[in-house]
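>> received
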Amino acid sequence: MIDWHIVCDFDGTITRTDVIDSILQRFADPGWKAIENAWVAGDIGSRECLSRQLSLVKATPNELLDLFDTIEIDPDFPDFVDHVIGLGASFEVVSDGIEQAIARILARHYASLLPILANRLRQIDCSQWRIDFPHASDACRAAAGNCKCRSTATARRVLVIGDGQSDMCVAATADFVFAKDRLAEHCKRNSIAYARFDSFAELPALLALLPSVSTTNATYFNLDTQEPFHHA
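>> returned
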């Protein structure tokens, strides 16, 4: 048995594409790109970015659902979830994306019983939307729509799986990180214990290299370089 609580990102981690980017590219006024640039530059937080961008979207519910049904996930994700839950881990999908999209996409891939913490779309009229932030925090250091650090309030060890900017804050407080892309580079620069991965097919073997239970002064390794990091 293992005592990990797993906090897993969705867009770009479980999926190969970003759902909100797909919505904006297909249905939003081109002004969304300037808002995105301001977020990437750190001038605004993701909560403000998402609010302003989603206000530019014009799409019917059926058009959005049709788009959601084109989004594919890593085919090895469902088996990984079954594996870690069978070992005794707890697992949450924690995303700064859209709850309705995540639920529909996971259901299509037989992974529909997972807890999902994400932002929620609200319909204003037949083709206009706003986004609500039920998991936001005014104390969030990243000014995110969904403060992922709130998902780590647990007595269990925390394992973060992610790929980008919305995962960087919670990665700093995790016991270990499985990271892709920008998150992997962030962990490397900031001496955060992590292993780089490309597919969920790799993760059972990487997980087996970590201590199965919490230990005092446990030593975790950057599995890319084998350099140790120490966590109390």
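>> Confidence is low (pLDDT under 50) at residues 215-219, 228-232.
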